[in-house]
Amino acid sequence: MPDNSRLVREKLDQAAAILDELGIDAWLTFVRETALSPDPSLDLILGLDMVWQSAFIVTRDNQRIAIVGKHDMENVEAVGGYTTIIPYVEGIRESLLSVLLQIDPQTLALNYSESDVAADGLAHGLMLLLQRYLIDTDLAERFVSAEPVIAALRGRKSHLEVERIQAAIETTLAIFYQVGEFARPGMSEVEVASFVHDLCQEQRLDTAWEADYCPTVSAGPSSPIGHAGPMVQYVIKPGALVHMDFGVRQDDYCADLQRVWYVRRDEDDAPPHAVRQGFEVVRGALQAGLEALVPGAQGWQVDAAARTAIVEAGYPEYQHAFGHHVGRAAHDGSTVLGPRWERYGDTPMGVIEAGNVFAIELGVEVEGYGYVGQEENVLVTPEGGRWLSDPQTEVWVI
Amino acid sequence: MPDNSRLVREKLDQAAAILDELGIDAWLTFVRETALSPDPSLDLILGLDMVWQSAFIVTRDNQRIAIVGKHDMENVEAVGGYTTIIPYVEGIRESLLSVLLQIDPQTLALNYSESDVAADGLAHGLMLLLQRYLIDTDLAERFVSAEPVIAALRGRKSHLEVERIQAAIETTLAIFYQVGEFARPGMSEVEVASFVHDLCQEQRLDTAWEADYCPTVSAGPSSPIGHAGPMVQYVIKPGALVHMDFGVRQDDYCADLQRVWYVRRDEDDAPPHAVRQGFEVVRGALQAGLEALVPGAQGWQVDAAARTAIVEAGYPEYQHAFGHHVGRAAHDGSTVLGPRWERYGDTPMGVIEAGNVFAIELGVEVEGYGYVGQEENVLVTPEGGRWLSDPQTEVWVI
After folding, report:
1. B75 in contact with A at a CB cutoff of 8 Å?
2. A5-154 has which CATH code?
3. DSSP character for A141?
4. Which one of B34, B37, B132 would you mutate to disrupt binding with A, by most A Cβ within 10 Å of its Cβ?
């Protein structure tokens, strides 16, 4: 486990500044049994699991108050960053009420959001319980969604966070290179995935998302694309493509990349024209999206730049978003670089900020060969997007 | 990854029967991005992560309907158990609305609960979104908490689930025995924990809860008890106790056990009288609790039996609950065998059922030596509690 104290303290400093910037008086993260019911924000501002009901309050004037079960007190102290830690034994209500009444915030941000799953860490039953705790006050009328607080806090990666993502990317790319050496005609998708899992195991790394689908491996034109797991019945064959979507989680931070290989037949000097053409279109659309990825742009505008490039090249639109934040999770919530479709809610309306890190991705089917997809990870700087992953520039050959 | 298809089908069968027993027409589990925002119920009825908004509906008359993103459809089909799977691309609302209107349930159970974290998987923002989707109907007025459905479904372990818990217990006990061989005076708590983590790593097992606190290791009388992590400054010493709280998660099911060792001085024939006496009191109280753990009893009554035994023996009350469900999580939600304190909400009022598996635990401080704590795992049968773990019957000696 990495030591997260420095990171938590960086994030708590950021949080107070963001509250001030947004004009929100206080932010309450209210949790219980987080091993079973995690709140994604707690990773940023504590980095520990809590068992009993626990409250973490940051105020605009930079108070950081934790109210936790007696047994958890030492652990919270060890993290550092909280100015006041209040332990309880029988119930949290009294201490919570007294702290909130003393702060007396005019706006109290809570972790719920219709659109942003990373900002939706407060369970509905726990919300009802909180309302019951506060029933003799008017505090519940001052609740606001913490969505903008969390979007900024999670999205603006600190220096240490970018370093960790970069390290996860390097590790992930090294595994992609090893897969290229390992993969041979006759191997099934499942064999490739097992090889990747063994490499992770040796390095004691988790996969960036559920291991059953991380990596996804697609061999040839019949293998389904999307969130399907690797299957034994799809086998690497000469004259077809192998595509892999994969990332590691290393020191709590993720990479999320896609690469594509062509499996050479004896008669091939190079991948077939249709494959190379598909790849160039994908690469061009990725580049078009990257150029639109500037601070101040809205997520849907970035998606539209890439989507237009694909459609203008005569290929069908991809049926997903062009990009998503990457960080503690492979899908790190907040602004999505996606079309304004119902299922994306308000997330494509979010505004790109310097310090954001995105995974950008798209692909096309090449008939008879398989799926050409590419995914890269990008840091937004004040001057625009900068590759964090060394981008794939041609179809790799097995 | 174990193949969970059989388990999911067992649980779906159970779910329909429980709805009928409780007189609830339909149960809706509504999720999104479950890697970041998991709903504990989804593990039981699907066993996969979903990315897009997804709805899983079980009805009293045994329909099982999944509405999922197009990319997830194949994976849901592969699990089996759903009678209808409806894919979507742009948004779930239309399909969800049409399915619910067609079922037309008079009561629609949703995953929220003030007391039971395992039944509180629906995030507040997602609840608001659902209410918005259904705004032109009166369906939101028919919402009820799925707490009793989930408590029964999660709590009544199937045969396959008990087998898996039993296997996790055996593995955990084997690790305890190895710790007893390994631990020597001069080693720190952290060294013991690292040894345990290495054993888990070799067997590719996760710890039952966060690895930083699994195991907890307490060496000697000064080491803090509770959820504190192992610390380098506390070292195994002759004439003091070593206590460990630990469990593995194996094939998705957990064990949660505590054992205690006494570190022999040259002059010791046996652990000191005070240590042996403390252990006998703990063991007696555990036995008193076990005897009260019968179908039909309420959680607080079981706790009271153990608590009374400790107090009557002249030791201070433990400041936690006597027991909790164990299963997919070490703290598996639902009924708690605990006192009627505020922080336990209604959970001590729950009724014990045959098929439940509990971890039962308590301990006392023995002045000058350290913490004597014992935790065992128990299956409730129609005739009463039965040890699943081979219980510790005397203080082990290092």
Report:
1. yes
2. 3.40.350.10
3. G
4. B37
**pLDDT band at residue A1, thresholds of 50, 70 and 90?**
very low
Q: Are A362 and A374 in contact (CB under 8 A)?
A: yes
Query: Measured over all CA atoms, what is the biggest interatomic distance in chain B, rounded to whole angstroms?
Result: 80
Q: What is the pLDDT of residue A226?
A: 64
Rounded-to-5 percentages of helix, strand, coil across chain A: 40, 25, 40
Query: Scanning the structure block, which residue is given the tokens 């703290």?
Result: B331
- CATH superfamily assigned to domain B5-155: Creatinase/prolidase N-terminal domain (3.40.350.10)
- From the centroid of its chain, how far is CA A158? 15
Which superfamily is assigned to A159-397 in CATH? Creatinase/methionine aminopeptidase superfamily (3.90.230.10)
User: Given this model, what pLDDT does residue A35 score?
Assistant: 86
CB B342 within 8 Å of CB B321: no
Nearest CA to CA, how far is B355 from chain A (Å)?
21
Query: Cα separation of B386 and B162, whole Å?
Result: 12
Residue B110: phi and psi, rounded to 5, are: -125, 155
Q: Do B124 and A120 touch (CB under 8 A)?
A: yes
pLDDT of B227 > 70? The answer is no
